Amino acid sequence: xxxxxSDYKLLTGLFFKLLPFQILLIVINAVNGIVDxxxxxxxxxxxxxxxxGLFGPMNHFLYAASMMIVSGSQILYGRxxxxxxxxxxxxxxxxxxxxxxxxxxxxLVMVVGSLTGGTRIFVSTEPDLxxxxxxxxxxxxxxxALVLGQQLFAFLSLENQTKxxxxxxxxxxxxxxxxxxxFVAILPWDTFxxxxxxxxxxxxxxxxxxxxxxTGKSEWKFSIKACQWHDAPDIVKLGYAGALSRFxxxxxxxxxxxxxxxxxxxxxxSAFAASNSFLAVIWSVPFGMMAVARMLFSISIGExxxxxxxxxxxxxxxxxxxxxxxxxxxLIIFAEPLTMMFYQDPTQPVYQMTVMGFRILPLCMPLxxxxxxxxxxxxxxxxxxxxxxxPIIDGAVGVVACSFILIPLIxxxxxxxxxxxxxxxxxxxxxxxxxxxxxxxxxxxxxxxAIPKTFGAGEEDRIDITVRxxxxxxxxxxxxxxxxxxxxxDPKRSYYAGLCMEEMAGNVVSHGFTKDNKSHSIDxxxxxxxxxxxxxxxxxxxxxxxxxxxxxxxxxxxxxxxxKLVYKIADEVDYQNLLGMNVLTIKM
Length: 588
Hints:
The chain is an alpha+beta fold.
């Protein structure tokens, strides 16, 4: 249990190291949305707020299309990382081409729809229609940059270029804020200015990140020659389940907007848009957790690593859930001050509706953590039924079904409560899916995940060792030799396996642990599968590729003799830097 806790700590550190940057990507759009909403409500008026609310379905579509490409590419990345790293250049190139094609087409449709009156499917009354059309044209200019920027952000995260993504994000926020003031408060260009400022900020965001690839510093290159075009349908096939929830949310928005206009009026739409624009920032936390989990799920599945797969989900539902509950409590407490950012008169109906939005809507977030991560897990592990059913229910069916009943009865509170009930429905779906898959009621997280028994090496076919100091290194070889003998492996191979891991662990402790003042540990895993011995050593120290030391060393050089010995006696040695962790895999 002690070793398991140490490995769990290693994954926890990685999870929360990556989380802020994934949150940042989502926060860009959310904060820009808040700034737009503040200028819309305080400078232009409530009609502009309605336009932003009516644009909601298109926002969901853009996010869904982008996430489909991102998630499909990340799943392929995880698979090829474990067995065919050269193929990743194809994944990266095809990703960019597909993203560019989808975004340009969407931008053209938005412009044509605005100019020809196609937007009447959202609203037909004036001045709402004109405000929406002007906002949509302004937004259309930046759609290619928005979608491409999200792709580069995902790949930069995988290359551990977190500083660059942070600079790009902060620059984007500053540019949008400044231009909002110029285009709306000074010129003024009303909703067109709001959309245009977001578009220019998106192009700046893309430009800062693209420089890393243009200057040739990236590991993954854009190369038409490297393209394997079958990756395009594979990206869509693997990614559409992850985006399905957002796609159907587009239709949910249209239906909900109709119900609110029918039974509450445009004032209800303005209240919902105000609370949603701020809560979009908070939604970046569960969606950010899902983005990190997707990367870790993909790599764990690519490596057939059963224990890490379970540990990632456990991190989400313990530490991640505690974080979410704390945020929800603060939102409920500060509901009125948050409302006053948008509306200052407590006697107005829109004020009270917005307050209730801040008090009720956050309650659905902890439940959403469950549905989002199980949908993500189902997608990466290709549980086809659950990966389709759960996003459809979560994205539209649950909220719409409850809204049809509750909005006519209790008006806006009916919509807010419907979002909470939706989370309960999704959890019931997860339990039922596990029950059908395992033929028994799930009583543990592993049971709820319904991981196939054939996935990965079982407890009896692997040994996990944690090293935190040089004193523990000396016991590594003996533990591995004992494990190998218990599996009937010949003494020579058993001895070499123990020697390899002890040499590499000792090298990490001697050189990696002393490079900084941070706490470090080494996770060693030995697996015996299909008559082959696979040894993996993983640490959270600074970048260190042992193959570089072997290639650059002279024949008479006596330094790094342990590393050279490992490369000499192993059948295959593969080094990877995964999300900032050193991972060395040895096959014998």
